[in-house]
Write a structure and sequence with these properties.
The complex is a heterodimer of chains A (629) and B (332).
Chain A lengths: L7 E12 L2 E13 L4 E5 L6 H9 L6 E11 L4 E4 L8 H6 L4 E4 L13 H12 L4 H14 L5 H5 L8 H13 L5 E5 L7 H17 L3 E6 L2 H7 L2 E6 L2 E7 H6 L4 H8 L23 H7 L9 E15 L9 E15 L3 E5 L6 H8 L7 E8 L2 E4 L5 H10 E4 L13 H11 L5 H14 L16 H13 L5 E5 L7 H18 L2 E6 L2 H7 L2 E6 L2 E7 H6 L4 H9 L38 E5 L5 E5 L4 H4 L2
Parallel strand pairs in A: 3-8, 3-9, 6-7, 7-8, 13-18, 13-19, 16-17, 17-18
Antiparallel strand pairs in A: 1-2, 1-4, 4-5, 9-10, 11-12, 11-14, 14-15, 19-20, 20-22, 21-22
Chain B lengths: L1 H27 L5 H11 L6 H10 L6 H13 L5 E2 L4 E2 H36 L4 H15 L2 H16 L18 H38 L2 H9 L3 H12 L2 H16 L2 H6 L5 H10 L3 H29 L1 H5 L6
Antiparallel strand pairs in B: 1-2
Helix pairs in contact in B: 1-14, 5-6, 5-8, 5-11, 6-8, 7-8, 9-10, 11-14, 13-14
The chains are: A alpha/beta (629), B mainly alpha (332).
Chain lengths: 629, 332
């Protein structure tokens, strides 16, 4: 082996893009190394150049990119050193390395596989390109690899199409594709970002297992410090294309030196925060809600304690699994199944669950965007209760101004053809509030509240960053002076540093304006930071609802436990317990212990009260003491 | 699949029945019938019409019957393969159409083939070399092809072909072979004449297809799975053909549905300008002279081909795209 023993060594790598009217430097003089058999994590926010860097390693940069420096790949197989940047673009030399010696997996497993070709076709194709094998040998190897990445029936998976698999399974197929030639280096570009937390833990475990089994090095690109702490041996922190800090994972987490890294770590919500502790956003936004106070009426007499109560909400969709070769069978899919909860005035109720568990459907019911099949929702206004599902006319108008929503995607939730001023004053116009002049004053006040200068009122949304756009979305929701704000994954699309800023803004607004939140998220740490009480949803039902400290400290339901166990902490002393992770799907009721399942004797599930407002969904004949851990 | 096809074929029956009613009504709409326009034509030329013969013909073809009965007779005849009688040509419709039909199919088929052969490489080149000089140049040519009306191109080409090559390019063959039985010389003459209509009719189609292929392929080239293919180490060309090109073909397959009827009826104006022996000009003439059986049967044939074409492209789409084959539409 060549001296230095680094599998991959990047020296002074600079990458720039020729854009209209100039050059954009994506990576500036970056150096890093990956040792054989070790995991190097490349950490940074979106736009920091980490993905571009990984593309350069495989020589798959877009044609408009210009790279300089050296990317040395020492192949342990034949002890040769190659400078990947010197190889011709898409030439045979670089193609012999791609897929064979360096594999790559991507963030979004749906789009990174072709929907028109079977899993088997796409995986075994790598062998067709690189290995001299007969068709039968290729089939054998592919089946073996698919079994290795955790397909229970690899022969069946071989003939399946990507869209027939769940997100986690698709990512497994992608891993099989990347590893089938046993590469020396795997580049994983945000491999678990698009996955649910329990699936993420499974994929991380799989990657770690395979990496050790194949003695393969891994360049892990991520923004999640929790993932880094659990998987990486060495860490490189990149910011605006420049390497800020590099070292072993011990050094980085125990003795961070660079202010950016320190700031990044302080900006991530974690479970050990003391009550009242604030996240330190990299760029804090001052909140000035005093201008709004007069209008939202903080001095009015407080209304009833329960602001909104939902009872037995249910909604099922008909899923028609028809196809060309199949008999159509229509089975109703219960998206929301007997959901009941109260939201107290002034609190933040967190709603946690994995994708597809029905949490967004519930929020849409509260907004009357989806009509439930059964159930009732009562909104207790200061002027008396409103039946949300049956409100009409003036009552509905009043309700609309009392419940507002903040959406997940700050890009698509703001019309690109309206200026910020139009966006913010539209709700006021719809509800015929004030005169054009007073509306303009209100809009300026709103901008002040979210910490944006009112000079920006005539700009369009595209000239703002993601965090600023989300703030505009919050301002729009505040325009009518609502009492209840439904926040549907408000920070999921944002970077860690911006996330803290938005969370703090929401917290401050809640305090100053006396707002009530329904905070929906899949991120337990975020909910933990925001919420007073937390409800956990699984397969359309609320399985556990408890005050924050109880739910985080002493969860009872097996699903809540597995959710909590799967969260990776950015803390070296609390590694994920991979061996305890259930290989099977945590949301599958059959994997829950007996008191939480329906049994064959017709004992259904009912909500059991464990005291202190701790509710859990369990078999209706189960003893409360039996449920306690 | 079989179930689906049978169901689709079953649905075709009421569809065609509705179309046949529509066609019949439209043909009946103008006042009078073929014989009345024939008599007035004769009178205009100062000849006396043999009223007795005409009355006999009227009776023979059921023109004295009320419209619903004539409709039933017409549809019933078509079901038995009797497409009626063309008064204009004084021949059964099947014989009038027959000779022209295969010439039309020949012209259209060659045109479509040429369109594909030219459009595919250009479309792929334009998409993979977006905003290059080649892309701009070919795009410009394509827009010219789209913008210039076919019949003007026909006139220009006729003029220059006559001056440069000295051939009269009207008709699909040399004048002397018209109404002659098939022979080697006739076939050669047809091939000699074929390229002009093919180029003229094909330009707009080619240009349109290049644009659509380019747009579809550009969309697909941005997709993540293309990067995956490159990261596997595939050669760029093979990766292009296997993944994005294959994905961008759905529009092309959907087009097959509309191509079928075009094969026998496309490019009427060009055909008139070039006096081609195709079915297009014949249809127009039949509609003008209220030659109802000829026009009606022809329109029905077009409708039939459209329905079949759509079915064929739907089946082909399902075969080629597993998402359509395996994913059921979910309903709320």
């Amino acid at each position: 082996m060549i001296l230095g023993a680094d599998l991959l060594r990047i020296e002074d790598l600079s990458i720039s893009f020729a854009m209209l009217g100039g050059r954009v430097d994506a990576v500036r003089k970056a150096s890093l190394r990956v040792s054989p058999g070790k995991v190097t994590a490349l950490v940074g926010e979106s736009g920091s150049g980490k993905s571009v860097l990984s593309q350069a390693v495989m020589g798959i940069l877009p044609k408009i990119a210009v790279a300089s420096g050296r990317i040395l790949f020492n192949d342990p197989l034949d002890d040769t050193q190659t400078d990947i940047l010197k190889l011709s673009h898409d030439g045979p030399d670089i193609r012999a390395i791609r897929g064979r010696r360096i594999g790559k997996i991507f963030q979004e497993p749906m789009t990174s596989l072709s929907p028109l070709h079977t899993i088997g076709d796409q995986v075994s194709e790598v062998l067709t390109i690189h290995e001299d094998m007969s068709k039968d040998e290729r089939y054998e190897r592919t089946i073996e690899m698919l079994r290795l990445v955790g397909f229970p029936k690899p022969e069946r998976a071989f003939r399946m199409y990507p869209f027939e698999l769940s997100g986690g399974m698709r990512q497994r197929a992608m891993i099989a594709l990347a590893l089938i030639c046993r590469p020396a280096l795997l580049i994983a570009d945000e491999p678990t970002t698009a996955l649910d937390v329990t699936i993420q833990a499974q994929i991380l475990r799989l990657l770690k297992d395979l990496q050790q089994e194949f003695n393969m090095a891994m360049l892990l690109i991520t923004h999640d410090l929790g993932v880094v702490a659990n998987v990486a041996d060495e860490v490189v922190v990149i910011y605006h294309g420049e390497v800020m800090e590099a070292g072993t994972v011990e050094d980085i987490f125990r003795r961070p030196t660079h202010p950016y890294l320190k700031g990044l770590m302080a900006a991530v919500p974690h479970f050990d925060m003391k009550p009242g502790e604030r996240l330190k956003a990299l760029r804090e936004v001052p909140v000035n809600a005093s201008q709004l106070l007069g209008k939202s009426g903080g001095k009015e007499p407080p209304g009833p304690e329960i602001l909104l109560s939902a009872r037995d909400l249910s909604k099922s969709y008909k899923v028609r699994k028809a196809g060309f070769f199949r008999q159509p069978d229509e089975t109703p899919m219960r998206a929301v199944d007997g959901v009941s909860f109260d939201i107290r005035r002034g609190e933040c109720l967190g709603l946690v669950g994995e994708s597809g568990c029905g949490k967004t459907t519930v929020s849409k019911m509260l907004m009357r965007a989806v009509t439930p099949d059964a159930g009732s929702i009562l909104f207790h206004d200061r002027q008396g209760p409103i039946d949300v599902l049956r409100a009409e006319g003036a009552q509905l108008q009043r309700l609309r101004s009392k419940i507002q929503m903040v959406f997940q995607d700050p890009v698509s939730s703001l019309s690109p053809r309206m200026t910020v001023q139009n966006i913010l004053s539209e709700p006021l116009e719809i509800h015929k509030r004030g005169t054009p002049k007073s509306r303009l004053e209100m809009v300026s006040a709103l901008m002040e509240v979210i910490g944006l200068n009112s000079r920006y009122l005539n700009r369009y949304p595209h000239s703002f960053s993601g965090g600023q756009r989300q703030r505009i979305g919050i301002a729009r929701a505040l325009a009518l002076g609502p009492e209840l704000l439904i926040c549907d994954e408000p920070v999921s699309a944002l970077d860690v540093s911006v996330q803290a800023q938005i969370l703090n803004l929401l917290k401050d607004l809640q305090k100053d304006l006396g707002l009530t939140y329904l905070f929906i998220s899949h991120n337990l740490a975020v909910v933990d930071y925001m919420a007073d009480r937390i409800a956990v949803m699984c397969a359309g039902r609320i399985v556990e609802l408890a005050p924050r400290e109880i739910l985080m400290g002493a969860p009872v339901h097996p699903y809540t436990k597995s959710l909590l166990a799967a969260v990776p902490f950015p803390d070296l002393d609390r590694p994920l317990d991979f061996s305890a992770l259930q290989a099977a799907n945590a949301s599958d009721m059959r994997n829950w212990s007996a008191p939480f399942r329906e049994d064959d004797d017709g004992h259904g599930l009912a909500t059991a009260d464990l005291g202190d407002g701790h509710l859990v969904l369990a078999r209706n004949n189960a003893d409360v003491r039996e449920l306690r851990p | 699949m079989l179930r689906y096809i049978l169901w689709r074929i079953a649905v075709m029956v009421p569809t065609l029945l509705l179309i046949s009613m529509l066609v019949f009504t439209i043909i009946e709409l103008p006042p009078g019938d073929y014989f009345e326009s024939y008599i007035s034509e004769l009178r205009a030329m100062g000849e006396a019409a043999d009223m007795e013969e005409i009355e006999a013909l009227r009776e023979r073809y059921g023109f004295d019957q009320p419209a619903p009965i004539r409709y039933i007779q017409w549809v019933g005849g078509m079901l038995q393969g009797d497409f009626g009688y063309s008064f204009e040509y004084q021949l059964p419709v099947s014989e009038v159409v027959g000779d022209r039909m295969w010439l039309t199919v020949l012209v259209s088929f060659v045109t479509i083939l040429v369109t594909w052969i030219i459009a595919f490489p250009i479309g792929i080149y334009s998409a993979t070399h977006q905003y290059s000089w080649g892309d701009y140049g070919l795009t410009f040519l394509g827009l010219l092809g789209l913008a210039v009306p076919n019949f003007i191109l026909a006139l220009i080409l006729m003029y220059f072909a006559n001056i440069w090559f000295g051939t009269s390019i009207g008709h699909l063959m040399d004048q002397k072979y018209l109404n002659e039985p098939m022979s080697w010389d006739k076939a050669k003459s047809i091939l000699e004449h074929l390229w002009i209509p093919v180029i003229i009719i094909g330009t707009a189609g080619t240009a349109g297809m290049v644009r659509r292929l380019r747009a579809n392929l550009l969309d697909e080239l941005q997709k993540q799975y293309v990067v995956t293919a490159r990261a596997k180490g595939m050669s760029p060309f093979r990766a292009l053909v296997k993944y994005p090109l294959r994905m961008s073909l759905n529009f092309f397959i959907s087009d097959i549905g509309s191509i079928l009827p075009q094969i026998i009826s496309g490019a009427e104006i060009t055909a008139i300008v070039l006096s081609l022996e195709t079915t297009g000009p014949m249809l127009i003439k039949a509609l003008q002279s209220q030659d109802m059986y000829l026009a009606g049967s022809f329109l029905m044939f077009l409708a039939f081909l459209t329905v079949i074409g759509v079915l064929v492209s739907d089946i082909a789409l399902a075969l080629l795209d597993p998402r359509i084959r395996l994913q059921g539409g979910s309903t709320k």
